[in-house]
From TrEMBL:
Motif (Histidine triad motif): 97-101
Source domain of life: Eukaryota
Interval of the full protein contained in this chain: 1 to 113 of 139
UniProt source species: Dichomitus squalens
Identification of the protein by name: HIT-like protein
Residues in HIT domain copies: 9-113
GO biological-process terms attached to the record: nucleotide metabolic process
GO MF term set: catalytic activity
Active site: H99 (tele-amp-histidine intermediate)
């Protein structure tokens, strides 16, 4: 990892200091299940570079993000899902380490859980 912050929970997840359910990992990104899923399979993808906002992430850390999102989407097999990325409190960012959400959207009436 090129840059981490000792107090950041997502940097700790990358280092294995906080447990997570790992999905895809490459040299540049790490992905895992969201602890408070909006739907079953809700995943997060994070660069292995501590930056608060998207525009601060070096390009070399972004190249693996979309392929990881595609792998997760294929694995989920969801017909409907959102790819989402929030920057700043007003835009609903809660964790200050850039992350991309993959959020399945079950059809009304689909079983959850
Ligand atoms: P944001 O609102 O910042 O875009 O999303 C932050 C996400 O991180 C939330 O969906 C929240 O449930 C998730 N999250 C926060 N802390 C942890 C954690 O310690 N482990 C995991 N797996 N997800 C977390
Ligand atoms: Zn971090």
């Amino acid at each position: 990892m090129v840059r981490s912050l000792a107090t950041c929970i997502f940097c700790k997840i990358i280092k294995g200091e906080i447990p997570s359910y790992k999905l895809v990992e490459t040299e540049k990104v790490f992905s895992f299940l969201d602890i408070g899923p909006l739907a079953k399979g809700h995943a997060l993808i994070i660069p292995k570079y501590h930056a608060e906002k998207f525009h601060e992430v070096p390009d070399e850390y972004l190249g693996d993000v979309l392929p990881a999102a595609k792998k997760i989407a294929l694995a989920l097999g969801a017909e409907n899902y959102n790819l989402l990325q929030n920057n700043g409190r007003i835009a609903h960012q809660e964790v200050d380490h850039v992350h991309f959400h993959v959020i399945p959207k079950p059809a009304p009436g689909d079983a959850e859980g």
